[in-house]
Structure formats: structure tokens, C-alpha cells
Amino acid sequence: MKFPGRRKIKHYFPVSEAKPILPTSEVRPDKDTYIVGLDETIVDVIANISDDFLTNFNIQKGLSNLVDVDTASAIYERLTAEQSISDHFAGGTIGNTIHNYSVLADDKSVLLGVMSANIALGSPAYHYICHTSSKVDMNHLQGVSGDIGRGITLITPDGERTFAIAPGDMDELSHDHIPEEIIAGAAAFVSCAYPLRHQGKPIKQAMLTSMAYANKHHIPTVLTLGTKHLVDDHHDELLELIKRDVNVLAMNELEAEALTGFADPLQAADAILDYVDMVLLTAGPDGLYLCGHTESSLKRETTNPIKSANIADFNRWEFSRPMMRQACENPIKVFSHIDPYMGGPEKIRNTNGAGDGALSALLHDISANHFHREAQPNSSKHAAPFLAYSSFAQICKYANRVSYEILAQSAPRLSRGLPEREDSLEEAYWDR
């Protein structure tokens, strides 16, 4: 698999050696490096609308709104009539994340969820498969008789995103269909908190079963919070889940405030680190924070300018590498922050997927560490049980760059890897 950043690799054809086995799209737990993601499989319809449109359909602006099939059809027909639809994309927070991971890593990932057993041309399932990387292994999806979900992203002139979601059969994933052996061999397992909304649906238990398998086999478990509205509605249950099963938590500043009560992202991250090993917090125009733990004896001081906010000199140890708190004899908290890459795109038309892009970069670094540990177990890079390959500061740079690419293309899924001229990422940092 590719590591983040440029690598000088000599390509040659070993004609004297036997031909390798033909590559397979299906993951082999004993041979491949991959991540596993569980998601509500959904297709995103992107449309630009007025604020009056939201009022007419009684949709709350800036939130994720569940609508029935009839309402979704009425919305879609109106958008079609007004020629407001800009595109169709395969969607879902985790679907976006593992697609982007496979594009960045040029390697395999596994999607767990449902898929229509009979796929018609132009159906939601058809659009989903067409817009998902061929590196994403879909062999473990559960077949269902109905449609997967349809999520309509409504973008108002101020750039705010509002979601109208018709679930279809996307929440019918059974816990019996979760492959323990696939999760056991993964570099990381990632899910979103959305299934908590569906107390009577099978997908909630499927998510909990997957997280239990990941914890059983000591696989880093990653959770992204979804929306502020979801955190508000399921705060206590979500917090208990985080304390029990989550290693890495990803969110934006609004979700962090709903979870902790702190409006300041740095204070919110500090509070969350009492429960998890690492926090990825995107803060819109203020950039992003990556925070976690490392062993005190292994901490490394930054050469970047020292920053202070509600925590003095908070980025002092950002050249350290992340570790799980329980793996540290004397754990310390580490905080790193980065401003938007190049100030951000000149014009942002759609912020959908920027946080998912940042998370895919972090997952790539975690899986790169897994890959390198398997390939070079005696390397000094693995003298301690680090969670990721790079330093907090370096992962911030990588995540920030991927988020920029998502914002610049105004689509939640990367169509290619990072441009080569931007792919160096200051290689000297890799040996820190």
C-alpha cells in the first residue's frame, strides 16, 4: 500500500521470479492491510435551493431530517422540475471515508451495510456502486429486497447544508451478518453514531456487535458523531458507548460542544480525552485539531511556533506519535492544531465531506503503521506500541490537505489521490 507522502521506489519486473497470484478485489485477512467501515448505505442527491424551499417542506435548516418515502419523492420531483439537482453521489459518512481511504492508500477497505439484491439501471444502488472505488470490498454487504437510502443535500445560498433522508432498507443490516474474522484482521474499524437514532432497527445492534468484535481483537475502534442534533438527542447513551468501546472520536466543533458543554474546541478535546485515546476535531474556518496521548518518556517537542489558548503552550509536544492511553506507563495529553490549508479554497460552495476526508487521512496513517509493523516488526518505528505512523503535527498536515481537496472539488469523495506536487508533506517529519 502507499504511505502518505512521496516515496522513491524503483519499479522493475522480476522476470526470473514466478508470476505472482492475480490480485483479488476481496479482502484476505491474513495477507492484506485494510480498514473496515459500517455504514447506512445511501445515495446523495445534491441540490441548490432557496430558504423558502425548506419552509415549504417543513424541513429544519442545517440538520439531518428523516422524511418518509412520499415526502422524499415529492422533494425530488420538485428539484427535478426546477432543475436544481447538480449531481448524484454515493454517500454516507463512513462510505465517503472508506472510499477516500482506498483512493489515498490505493489499497483495500471493506464496507459493511446493505445493498439492493436486484439493482436496476439508475436506481440508488446503481449510483452507489458507480461512485465507489473498486478498491472497496463490497462482498460482505447484506442483500435486501428494497432500495438503499436516498439522502437529499439541500444547499441554501449561504452555503448551509440541510439533509432530507429517506432511509429505505438501509437500516436493515443484521448483527448476524457481521463477519468477525474480517474485523479481527483489520487495521481499524470505523462507524458513525447515526445507527443510535434507529432504536427499533437491526443496524444499531449490528454496529454494537461490530464494535464488540473490534474491542475483542484489540482493533482500533473509530467513531464519528454525525450531527449536533444526534448528540443532543442521545447524549447519555452516546457517552456510555464512547467510554466503553471507542478509541478514536471524530467530530466538528458543534458536536463537540453538544457532547462536552465546551464551546472552545480545545477545551472540548481536552475533556473528551478523559474517555478516548485520540480526538479529531474539525473547526470549519479555524482549521482542525488532533489530540491524543503519548508516553511521557517518548514525547518530542515541536519546532513550530508555540501556541496558547485556554491551554497554555498546548502544541509543545505535537511532534510526538499517538499511543493508546493504556499502553503508556506515564501518559500525557498532546494537542496539535493547523489552520486551513492555504487559507482554504477561494470559494466554498459545499462543505459536505470535508470532515470525512480528514478522517480518511488519519485512518490511512493508522493503517500505514499497521502495514509497516507487519512488514518491518524490528524497525525502531515500533519500539513502542504506537497507534499511528506519524506525529500529531504531520497527521494534521495530511488531514488538512485532504480536507482542502474535498472542499476545492465540491464533492464528498475524492476522484484521485493528492496531486504529486503537493504529496511530499515534508518528508523529514516522518523520521520524528
UniProtKB/TrEMBL annotation:
<dbReference type="InterPro" id="IPR011611">
    <property type="entry name" value="PfkB_dom"/>
</dbReference>
<feature type="binding site">
    <location>
        <begin position="282"/>
        <end position="287"/>
    </location>
    <ligand>
        <name>ATP</name>
    </ligand>
</feature>
<keyword id="KW-0547">Nucleotide-binding</keyword>
<comment type="pathway">
    <text>Purine metabolism; GMP biosynthesis via salvage pathway.</text>
</comment>
<feature type="binding site">
    <location>
        <begin position="39"/>
        <end position="44"/>
    </location>
    <ligand>
        <name>GMP</name>
    </ligand>
</feature>
<comment type="similarity">
    <text>Belongs to the carbohydrate kinase PfkB family.</text>
</comment>
<dbReference type="InterPro" id="IPR052700">
    <property type="entry name" value="Carb_kinase_PfkB-like"/>
</dbReference>
<dbReference type="GO" id="GO:0008906">
    <property type="term" value="F:inosine kinase activity"/>
</dbReference>
<feature type="binding site">
    <location>
        <position position="400"/>
    </location>
    <ligand>
        <name>ATP</name>
    </ligand>
</feature>
<feature type="binding site">
    <location>
        <begin position="92"/>
        <end position="96"/>
    </location>
    <ligand>
        <name>GMP</name>
    </ligand>
</feature>
<keyword id="KW-0808">Transferase</keyword>
<dbReference type="InterPro" id="IPR046405">
    <property type="entry name" value="IngK"/>
</dbReference>
<feature type="binding site">
    <location>
        <position position="355"/>
    </location>
    <ligand>
        <name>ATP</name>
    </ligand>
</feature>
<feature type="domain" description="Carbohydrate kinase PfkB">
    <location>
        <begin position="135"/>
        <end position="296"/>
    </location>
</feature>
<dbReference type="InterPro" id="IPR029056">
    <property type="entry name" value="Ribokinase-like"/>
</dbReference>
<dbReference type="GO" id="GO:0006166">
    <property type="term" value="P:purine ribonucleoside salvage"/>
</dbReference>
<feature type="binding site">
    <location>
        <position position="197"/>
    </location>
    <ligand>
        <name>GMP</name>
    </ligand>
</feature>
<comment type="pathway">
    <text>Purine metabolism; IMP biosynthesis via salvage pathway; IMP from inosine: step 1/1.</text>
</comment>
<comment type="function">
    <text>Catalyzes the phosphorylation of guanosine and inosine to GMP and IMP, respectively.</text>
</comment>
<dbReference type="GO" id="GO:0032264">
    <property type="term" value="P:IMP salvage"/>
</dbReference>
<protein>
    <recommendedName>
        <fullName>Guanosine-inosine kinase</fullName>
        <ecNumber>2.7.1.73</ecNumber>
    </recommendedName>
</protein>
<dbReference type="Pfam" id="PF00294">
    <property type="entry name" value="PfkB"/>
</dbReference>
<keyword id="KW-0460">Magnesium</keyword>
<keyword id="KW-0660">Purine salvage</keyword>
<dbReference type="GO" id="GO:0106366">
    <property type="term" value="F:guanosine kinase activity"/>
</dbReference>
<keyword id="KW-0067">ATP-binding</keyword>
<dbReference type="GO" id="GO:0032263">
    <property type="term" value="P:GMP salvage"/>
</dbReference>
<dbReference type="GO" id="GO:0005524">
    <property type="term" value="F:ATP binding"/>
</dbReference>
<keyword id="KW-0418">Kinase</keyword>
